[in-house]
Design goal:
mainly beta; 10% helix; six-stranded antiparallel beta barrel
């Protein structure tokens, strides 16, 4: 795919924190994911990468994804994934936290009894 062809690929603009591990380096760098597509992503951060370097990126709900650095400019760089991913899965809420989420008590609505269970003698209630 030429550089002109890749501009037509759908990208999801988002702001997501992630980690990048450069092949051979023990430490992982924290980066901001600026946009994401099935074939790659743009990251921003202080990662010490160079064009062509093999990297692994930790993406929410997917885990570690393998790729290579396609370009670098200042503190931003592009990563081309080895295998395509599903960007919608990364955008979804964190699967490990979704099941344990409980809304705050103050957001719960008051339950009103159905009309069939309300008192039949409504005349005794004062109308305002």
């Amino acid at each position: 795919m030429s550089s002109v062809d890749t501009r037509q690929v759908n990208r999801d603009s988002l702001f997501l924190l992630s980690q990048v591990r450069v092949d051979g380096a023990p430490e992982a760098y924290r980066v901001k994911v600026r946009n994401l597509s099935a074939g790659g992503m743009m990251a921003e951060g202080d990662a010490k990468v160079m064009r062509g370097a093999l990297v692994h990126v930790e993406l929410r709900n997917l885990g570690w994804v393998e790729g290579s650095v396609a370009w670098k400019q200042d503190d931003r760089f592009g990563i081309a994934f080895v295998d395509e991913i599903d960007p919608a899965q990364v955008r979804a809420p964190d699967a490990s936290q979704a099941s344990s989420y409980k809304p705050p008590r103050y957001t719960k609505t008051h339950q009103v009894a159905p009309v069939s269970q309300q008192p039949e003698d409504l005349a005794r209630f004062r109308k305002i």
